[in-house]
Q: What sequence folds into this?
């Protein structure tokens, strides 16, 4: 369908609010938008006089569109974001945030609850959630020290229920053994409540209690326990000072608030928030996008991204969200959040102008620093587009890696980045064929790409871990399928050390440079010349290595298990098989052991020990 036909089709749309989906020649959704009037909004894309330069790249790929009606603008806003989440369209800006804060959980439904920490909170009845806590607070260590100091259990529910006698921690006086009722429920819960006081920024009583226990242990000549309490006291004192620092107090109240702000630079928009919990600054988060990638007004784009942030968040929501947006965006967000999340969204009050300016200054400084140090992914993408003579900067990149060991369990990984950030919902593993000749990277790369292109939604650029030979495999497969997408490779070059480096006794006799291998270019591009591109491409390559080896190791583990004699023992599950294999004891030596010795050596039940004994005798 040509542009004139698209314009005519758009003029037939209703003047009602709704959402529209733009599709390319492969029937892929490449952009999702919302409108108060579908007719006027969609028509503007195909009307030459109304179209701006930022929209030209998008429109050049549109071959058709579809629409859906909604009852009002708020419904259109929600549907739009759900569609963006579903299709992850190329020309929409996506919210990316892998950072989460840790929480400490106490499940009061348990007879003898325990403290544990997690980054994914699922609120339910009688579950007490403390936090979130700042990054760098070493929460795992803190929980272990609190458990030791107050003799709280740290075993799993399964271990707790199955225990018939106290464990070693009780013997060394680091647990009160609630598993065998050596402490009353009332006294145990009192210990947990005292520990929670410390975590809720009321540390004085707990620190005094630990100090008293340390002195008492010393008087009773329990010097090891006294030393342990002394060391714990030192770490907990530091944590207490860190988590309740006076200079973090911003509001002078106990409110939980998220404060949003944004800064529009020449090329990029920096946006982010300050997280305030119990009146204290917990931490900051910032994100950014390139102005060229925005298909709508900045504040409308930010409205979408703020909603995506909370839609994808695993953290409990604050009581209030402050954000100074235009009146239309503010009203839209307020309507949606009050109905869905029961959270108020308000503008910064005059009394909080200092706090608003604090967020603004933080975001401005983040952008200035990134531009000065040349670590922006957008600059890297722009340079990559220029090196490949592309008409526009690439946005969607895919990187591939092959993992195998001596020809067994070969796997490949597909890693996808959009706008310089991981798009993990499009990561993919490939289980590859084991070839008679064993290691054959080229055949495996061919198989990987041939299977990949059948799934559509192809990237702007393919990236392979390797040089010209690996690149040519991809190029040949793409040519065979009449696909015109550039391919580049990341490879290392070894250069002799300079005489100065050698005299300074730097390790080795060579140094390594990361190179970008580009077909048709005589000399590879040395990536250290541009920090943004170096960070982006090596980050993708390393992520591909990690992801491909994860499946490879799993397949190898399963292969080893299946080829083991343990697999032939009926009634023995995977966990027990693993215990047998990890014990390092041969089948012959196991056969010499009695049932009790098998039970003790492998830490398994009497019944499982009998099954193993019968099978190997």
A:
């Amino acid at each position: 369908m040509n542009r004139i036909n698209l314009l005519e089709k758009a003029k037939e749309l209703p003047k009602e609010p709704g959402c529209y989906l733009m599709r390319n020649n492969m029937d892929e959704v490449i952009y999702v938008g919302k409108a108060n009037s579908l007719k006027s909004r969609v028509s503007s894309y195909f009307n030459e006089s109304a179209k701006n330069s930022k929209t030209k790249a998008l429109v050049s790929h549109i071959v058709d569109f579809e629409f859906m009606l909604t009852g009002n603008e708020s419904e259109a806003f929600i549907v739009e974001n759900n569609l963006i989440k579903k299709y992850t369209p190329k020309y929409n800006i996506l919210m990316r945030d892998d950072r989460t804060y840790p929480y400490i959980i106490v499940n009061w439904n348990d007879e003898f609850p325990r403290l544990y920490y997690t980054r994914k909170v699922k609120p339910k009845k009688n579950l007490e959630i403390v936090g979130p806590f700042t990054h760098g607070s070493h929460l795992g260590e803190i929980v272990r020290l609190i458990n030791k100091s107050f003799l709280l259990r740290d075993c799993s529910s399964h271990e707790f229920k199955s225990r018939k006698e106290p464990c070693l921690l009780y013997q060394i006086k680091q647990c009160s053994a609630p598993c065998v009722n050596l402490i009353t429920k009332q006294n145990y819960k009192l210990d947990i409540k005292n520990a929670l006081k410390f975590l809720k920024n009321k540390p004085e009583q707990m620190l005094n209690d630990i100090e008293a226990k340390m002195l008492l242990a010393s008087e009773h000549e329990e010097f090891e326990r006294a030393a342990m309490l002394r060391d714990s006291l030192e770490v907990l004192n530091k944590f207490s000072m860190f988590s309740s620092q006076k200079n973090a107090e911003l509001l002078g109240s106990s409110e939980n608030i998220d404060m949003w702000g944004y800064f529009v630079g020449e090329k990029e928009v920096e946006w982010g928030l300050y997280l305030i919990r119990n009146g204290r600054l917990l931490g900051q988060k910032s994100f950014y996008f390139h102005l060229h990638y925005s298909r709508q007004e900045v504040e409308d784009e930010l409205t979408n991204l703020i909603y995506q942030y909370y839609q994808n968040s695993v953290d409990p929501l604050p009581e209030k969200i402050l954000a100074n947006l235009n009146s239309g965006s503010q009203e839209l967000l307020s309507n949606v959040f009050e109905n869905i999340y029961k959270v108020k969204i308000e503008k910064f009050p005059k009394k909080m102008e200092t706090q608003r300016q604090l967020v603004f200054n933080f975001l401005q400084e983040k952008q200035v620093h990134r531009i000065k140090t040349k670590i922006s992914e957008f600059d890297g993408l722009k340079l990559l587009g220029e090196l490949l003579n592309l008409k526009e900067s690439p946005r969607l990149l895919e990187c591939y890696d092959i993992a195998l060991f001596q020809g067994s369990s070969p796997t490949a990984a597909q890693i996808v980045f959009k706008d310089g950030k991981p798009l993990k919902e499009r990561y993919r593993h490939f289980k590859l064929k084991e070839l008679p000749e064993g290691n054959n990277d080229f055949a495996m790369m061919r198989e990987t790409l041939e299977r990949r292109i059948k799934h559509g939604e192809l990237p702007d650029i393919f990236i392979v871990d390797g040089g010209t030979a690996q690149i040519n495999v991809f190029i040949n497969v793409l040519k065979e399928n009449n696909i015109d997408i550039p391919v580049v490779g990341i490879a290392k070059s070894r250069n002799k050390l300079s005489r100065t480096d050698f005299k300074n006794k730097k390790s080795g006799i060579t140094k390594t440079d990361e190179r970008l291998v580009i077909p048709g270019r005589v000399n590879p591009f040395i990536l250290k010349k541009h920090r943004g591109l170096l960070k982006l491409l090596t980050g993708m390559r390393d992520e591909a290595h990690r992801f491909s080896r994860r499946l490879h190791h799993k397949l190898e583990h399963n292969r080893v298990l299946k080829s083991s004699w343990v697999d032939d023992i009926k009634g023995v599950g995977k966990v027990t098989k693993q215990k047998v294999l990890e014990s390092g004891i041969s089948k012959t030596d196991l056969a010499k052991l009695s049932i009790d010795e098998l039970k003790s050596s492998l830490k398994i039940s009497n019944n499982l020990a009998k099954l193993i004994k019968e099978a190997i005798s």
